[in-house]
Prior knowledge:
The two termini are 19 Å apart. The protein has a single domain (16-317), classed as ATP adenylyltransferase (HIT family, subunit A), CATH 3.30.428. The protein has helices spanning 16-23, 28-37, 61-64, 70-75, 128-137, 170-173, 209-226, 259-262, 275-278, 287-292, 295-305, 309-317, and strands at 41-46, 51-56, 92-94, 98-102, 111-115, 141-146, 159-164, 180-186, 189-194, 202-206, 235-242, 245-252, 281-284. By secondary structure, it is α+β, with helices and mostly antiparallel strands. The strands form two sheets. It has a ten-stranded antiparallel beta sheet with strand order 3-4-5-7-6-11-12-10-9-8. Strands 1-2-13 form a three-stranded mixed beta sheet. The relative contact order is 0.16.
Amino acid sequence: MHAVFTNFYMEPIKNINHFIETQLPEWEMASSNYNDLKNVKTKTFLFNGFEILVQFNPKRITSSAAKVDVKSIEARPCFLCAQNRPMQQRSLPFKDDYQILVNPFPIFPRHLTIPKEQHTDQLIQLHFGDMLDLAYSLDDFVVFYNGPKCGASAPDHFHFQAGSKGFLPIEKDFHNTALVELVKVKQEVKIYQSKDYLRSAITLQSSNKESIALIFSGLYNDFHLLQPTEVEPMLNILAYFEKGEWIVHIFPRILHRPAQYFAQGEGQILLSPASVDMGGVFITPREEDFNKISMDDIADIFTQVCMDEITLHKLINRI
């Protein structure tokens, strides 16, 4: 089954900053968490031509440590369904079936969660066009998608997230020709592969929405052939609109959580990689993990959870 995409452009959402600014004073918990974000600890590791930031963010423990097995999900109410959200949480409609919400546990200076109104599984294939529309409409944001086994803390309710542009290192890294290689151009879409970037990424760049969607659909189906037992191929996606073009970074995954997540004692690092981590900001909800994580840990975690460059290149060549 394939979604139908058109080149219809949604209008940019001009009132999003007003929505955030008026929501926070009405919601004490969220306001407090955004204020705390101003003093959050960060540190930077310099690799070969690029940086990885590490953020100590204790309010993200609920997401990082979320139990996403079927039994645990069935035992809790869905926190993205309207009837279960906090009374203070307002929403801004998008298209006919999405609600834009302020994320009360922020990573970014402005952090949004965008669930569908109906309770439906976290599966991207039929909603990728909506992601491109969101990236166009939220033109000061990076929109991101975490697969059901790739960092989504609510795999039972379809949603995107969005965060302030200029926060993720990958935004500038993409323009560094030492880190990306243009592999081919097809149907007005430039297709890039990352080079020596620790995590393998495919990037699609084009002003043609329909062509990007068709290329993505082909990649999705080919990747699914490599993971036939998964409900969808494991991936994270970052998308934004820049200078008249969509830029979509796709990170094929091979593992949900690294060995460090399950280790005991000093060997444990409670980190569950998702789109933000793929974008170059590691989120550590425990201070001891923030203090001890090293360059070797970062490289090892990426190696465990991401597809290798050779397999990725073969995937691109099938386009």
